[in-house]
Design goal:
The protein is α+β, with helices and mostly antiparallel strands. The chain has five domains: 2-34; 49-150, membrane protein fhac (Ubiquitin-like (UB roll)), CATH 3.10.20.310; 157-237, Roll (Ubiquitin-like (UB roll)), CATH 3.10.20; 243-322, Roll (Ubiquitin-like (UB roll)); 326-705, Porin, CATH 2.40.160.50.
Length: 709
Amino acid sequence: MQCARPRPIVRHAAAQWYAAGLFHVAAMCALLLLGLDPAHAQQNGVLILDSLLVDEIVFEEDSPGDRETLLGQISTRESPGSFARWLYSAFGSRFPFSGEPEYFDIGAFKDDVDALKRHFKNTGYISAAVEGVYELLESKRDVRAVFRIRKGQRSYIDSVDYRNLQRLPQRIDSLIRHSSDRLLVVGQPYDADATQAEVNRVLRLLGNNGFPVAVSDSILVERKLSNKNVTVHLWFTCGTQLLVGDIQKSISNEEELNLAQQIIDDRIELESGEVWSNEQRERSEVNLNRLNIFSNAQLITTFPALADSAHRFVPMTMLLSMKPRHELTPAVLVNTQFNRFNAGAEVAYLFRNAFGGAQTITTKLNVLSKVDLPVNSYQASAQVQLDQPYFLDNKTSGVLTISYILAQESGLYGGSIVQGVVELKRLFTERLQGFVAWTLEQSQYNIIASGQSLVNTPFAQFDTTGIDYRNSIVAVTLDRDYTNDFFYPSSGLSLRGTVEEAGILKALIPGAFRGFQSTEYRKTEGTVRWFTDLSRNRSSIFGVKLKAGAIFRYGESLSGDIPVPFNRRYYAGGSQSVRAWSASTLAAAGQEEAAFGGNALVEASMELRWQMFPGAKKWLAVEPENLWLVLFADAGNLWREASVIRLNEAAIGFGVGIRYNLFFGPIRVDYALKGFDPSDAQDPWFTQRHFWSDVFFKGQLVLGIGHAF
């Protein structure tokens, strides 16, 4: 009997264990309902900080500051809303509008306090005090992070002291101490970044004036007790001023081109015996590569040690590898010329160093057609081009092109163009270049369209006679590009403007244009592109494009109503325009006139480009990380003249696209829907129409090479 007594005790222990288990399960369910992660929520039954979401970050300052700048200094982040967190948990971080939960980390929060102290110290608030406190909200699952900031008095620069520069030539010393491009100026607030930038400026000056191995020893900021301002001491070690030594050439395949040595020598902006310059060495290398006759052009240098004062001359070796003199290149053409997807073929013959001066003669034969069946719109051309890689100096190049073009636009017109173009290109800076082009062209068109489709077009009067043009056109273009990548920009601004004039030569030599239609006009056009990286790692990019252009006829062209030639007019719709309309089908006056072009154009586009699989491994021949999803919206229209532009007639389209990035730009497929159709007087907005039958299934599939902008 005694041996059986423990059984009730065992049953009692099991019941306690069972009740405790139910309690823990209930507690976990309650935490899940509250939105807490049970893995973080409790430790020995005590709520811990890193289970709490950051609801808000507050900066309490004694004087107002820039919130975005302060957020950039800290690692603590506000947690996104509940819907964004749900998208993140369901689809991952790359899904649009998803947001990863941001949990409060006490260690990171303390580091943020120190980071803000450093930030204020580095921007002149040397005695700034920062206190970090966190407040648990009523929900018991969120924290408000508060940074209490007392900046105090800001320190300004009383003087800048450049040390160890006494032995420099007077000219260099003056550039360092008194140049207008100094980044540290007496009276400005102290800033650590500006101080480092000034050090870099001095080192660049030294490197371009014979001291390429100069170094910055130290930076000392001395604060005065009297006025709390600072003196900045910058120490440098310059060494001995170096000179250009012997320049040797190492040329492979030299017999391929038989290039005159003087052509190479004139591209080198350094001469033996002169003061060494890093900038001139870099420009010399660029000049050699711009000749387009070298597959590789490098300038190799070896500098003496900083303490070596015995060897002042810097030897330099040119490593040059020639391209073949003759080259025959067949190619498949795919592009988005005329705002549509075109394909064709080309064969090109290159004759390098044609006259012994690095000139290149290129002969091309090509056929290009709109991608549809049957093939009824095409352009075929024969072209000879002479490239002169330098003209007068190393920053200017010239091109002479003679072309014969046959073109037909389905159901509209067909004709031929004989064209000669002389173009000069000037590289003003790395980011700014200019073009001047003079075009003399003669063209003949037969109008294929007839009847009602031609009545409202500017070419109606030439229905039976055809039209013969002879025009002289001068165009000036400036292109300033501050984007960070030519093919795949993720930040920066690009500006391009063109002014075109046709009529000057006719006024000077009127007899040369007798018997031909000649259009006298002035054309202005501008394009702005802007990009920003929303993700800080180039995986989510937002871009905007604005384009506007207008053609103004004058003289006999205006009084006689002679239209601008087809190849000089504007067209709207297509892969690089308002994508919800196919190429050359959008115009405020109607589709009939759209096909013949107009004299005024306004367009705007925006895109959100999102990388779908960053870091994904290669699958067969596909690189998943090259796949991008794009959301876009376009707006704009085409008008007959600038005087009749009405922005309320702008068409609006939107859609989604896929990009696959290649080394020359992306291949893209877009599907665009008409959001606002100004030609539909009754139901212009897509919300007024049946979405699936009248909007979605009437969308425009657009193919393209390269970004839309």
